[in-house]
Structures are given as structure tokens and as C-alpha cells.
Amino acid sequence: MKRTIHLIAAARPNFMKIAPLYHALMKESELEPVIVHTGQHYDLNMSDAFFQDLRLPEPHIHLGAGSGSHAEQTGRVMIAYEKVVMEKRPDMVVVVGDVNSTIACTLAATKVVFDHDQNDAATGLNRPMIAHLEAGLRSFDRTMPEEVNRLATDVLADLLWTPSPDGDENLQHEGVAKEKIVRVGNIMIDSLEMMREAIEAVPVYEKYGVTQGDYAVLTLHRPANVDNPTSLKALCDMIVRLSKQMPIIFPVHPRTRKNLENTGLIDTLEGKPEIRLLEPQNYISFMNLIFNCRLAVTDSGGLQEETSYLGIPCLTLRPNTERPITITQGTNQLCTLDDIDSKIDQVIAGETGKGKSPDLWDGHTADRVVTSIRSVFNI
User: Rounded to whole angstroms, what are the CA distances from 165 to 134, 168, 173, 178?
Assistant: First the structure.
């Protein structure tokens, strides 16, 4: 009997996480991966282009959730996904990361109860088994919507695939049974290695007139940084200061661009030769910019991991991170607008180390996940 595995994709990092797993599952004759695109992010460069870059097919199922408040978006995904599960029950639902679609599909699948005579012989469940890829990460800051999504998802999931030892420890401290936790490594690195040849093939950075190893890449999108006009102005001032030390390539997230335009702060950045404001980039182009930069400044989660793996200094504009291993072992540093200038000076002076790649961040996480799935279903 072929087991159906739903792979839930919503925001850009989800696509990078499901791609290696999809390809690994396609090699298994007894497992059938089904891509469920919730439509949480629907901008072409933020979604469809990523499927093309990562050699993924068109989504098998598209929920079309769209944007909205946290409650609206979560509710729409839950309603749409419940119908999908009821129509044709999958054997496993794999949710990734920490976006609204992660918790929405987890809740929908958890609450779908079939007749008891439909209990799965391997799992004993009369609903789909739920697995969380990238489980156990914690910022310990519940003001972050992502932290709430992570906590709730990990409470409900039946199988928790963690990327690093701190994930295991967090889950055990929260009372999760040890047998539900499987450390598999970092799936993001699988995508990076899978696409390395394509990433390195075309020097995208040359298009923007910068020199390899002598520019910064900037990404900012978190509400705490870009929704408040005062914080946004301070960020713009920082960007201008940094541009006097090295050129900046800034792919502007739609949320950030909207706020820059609404406040008029876009005028402080546009037209300056050392600041390149770009549209959101597809995966290959963006990673080529990262591969060849001197410094990354971000508030993104995934970029902290990729730069640590690549040995590139990363300054994360946040008071905390759910990826502390990127600080203790990698190249990442937390910073504020008060101390970022001094940290930038340290990077330029070569005073920051290259760090090292954490254990199991090796490009084989998807294979370990497949092994875990086979074990669950006694394949």
C-alpha cells in the first residue's frame, strides 16, 4: 500500500525545505509526496519562482489562502485544508517552519477524526499522522507570532524532526516524549547543496556593479523592525551609514517596501549609488548574492543558518533568535540599532571568526527524514 505524504508549503523558506524531501520521497516506491501550496505568499518571486528553481512540479493542491490578519489567514487555511483532508485522507501531513500555515494545517489535520475502523495499523491513529520538520526551535519570545506557531505545532505534532541539539532539549523540557523526537539536521542545507551548481554558475552580483566579497546583503521584513515608522527611519539611517563603508544590495520584501513608500522613507534610499534596491529575488539569484557577499544583515531566520554554513558573517537585527546554535557555533551575531555600527566595524576589520557548521548540517537531512517515515509505517 502506497503511503500519501502531504508536504505543506506556504512562505518562501517552506519551499526550500520541502524541495529536498519531495525529491527524496519520489525515489521511494511505497511513498507518494503531494505538495499542498496554501497560497499564504502568492507574489511570483516569493512563491512560484521558487518551485521552478527547486525543480518542484506545480503544486498538486492549491488552497489559495492569500494575505490578511493572522486570524484571517490561519482560519482560511484551516477551512480549506480540512476539506482537502476529509475528501481524501493522507497518511501523513508534514508541516515545516513556523508560519501561519504551519499551525493552521496542524490544527485542521489534528481535528479531523475518521471512523475508528479507519485506524491506521502502523500508527493507531484515525486521523493523519502529523510531523513537524524543523521542530523544537525557540526564541522564548511569545510576542513573536512565529514563536506561538512553533509552540502550538510542537504540542500537537506526533513526530518532531529537529535540526540541532537545542531543539531536542527544548522539546524535552516542555514534556515531549523522547520517542517522538528525531534529530535529522538542517533541511535548508540540503536545498543549498542541491542547487549549489546552479547558484555558482552565474555571477548575479556582477549585474549590480559590485565586487565579489566587498558588499553587504540586507533583508528586513519582521513587523518589529519595519512596521513602526520610528524603527524604520532608524533602519534607513543605518543603511545609509553602512553604504558609506561598502555597497549594499537590498532585495526589498513587499511588506517593507509598502511601509517605506507609505512613510516616504523610500526617498532616503532611492537614488543613492551605493544602495541597490531590488525586487524579491528567486532562490538561485538570492543565494548567489549571499555566496559572494562580505556581510549579511538580516532579521530572517533561515539566513542565519545559511551564512553560518557558508562561513559568512551575519548580523541579525533582533533581540533573540530561535537558532542559537548559529551564534554558539556559527557566524551569526544578534545586534540592535545601538550596537550594529560597532559590529559592522568588527566584521570589516576581520575580527569575527568563521565559526563551524553544526553537526548533521550536511545535505543529507532529507534522507534521514525518509528513513524516519519508513520506520513509522514499517516499510
Answer: 12, 5, 12, 13
Nearest to 333 by CA among 355, 310, 357, 362: 355
Rounded to the nearest 5°, which phi and psi values hold at 22?
Answer: -60, -50
pTM to 2 decimals? 0.90
Active-site residues, by number, are 221
Residues 343 and 371 in one domain: no
Q: Are residues 152 and 252 in the same domain?
A: no
Direct distance between the N- and C-terminal alpha carbons of the chain, in angstroms, rounded to an integer: 10
| Secondary structure class of 67 (helix, strand, coil) | coil
Q: Are strands 92-96 and 129-133 parallel, antiparallel or unpaired?
A: parallel
**Lowest model confidence (mean pLDDT) among 79-83, 137-141, 299-303:** 299-303
HSE (CB half, 13 Å, CA atoms) of 353? 8
Q: Count CB-CB contacts under 10 A for residue 312.
A: 24
Question: pLDDT for 144-198, tens place per residue?
Answer: 899 999 999 999 999 999 999 999 999 999 999 999 999 999 999 999 999 999 9
Full domain range(s) for residue 247 = 196-348
CA–CA gap between residue 178 and residue 181 (Å, rounded):
5
Q: Are residues 129 and 246 in the same domain?
A: no
CA dihedral 219, 223, 224, 226 (to 10 degrees): 60
Lowest mean per-residue pLDDT among 262-266, 280-284, 360-364: 280-284
Number of domains making up the chain: 2
Amino acid identity of residue 271, one-letter, is G
In tens, the pLDDT along 55-73 reads: 889 889 999 877 778 899 9
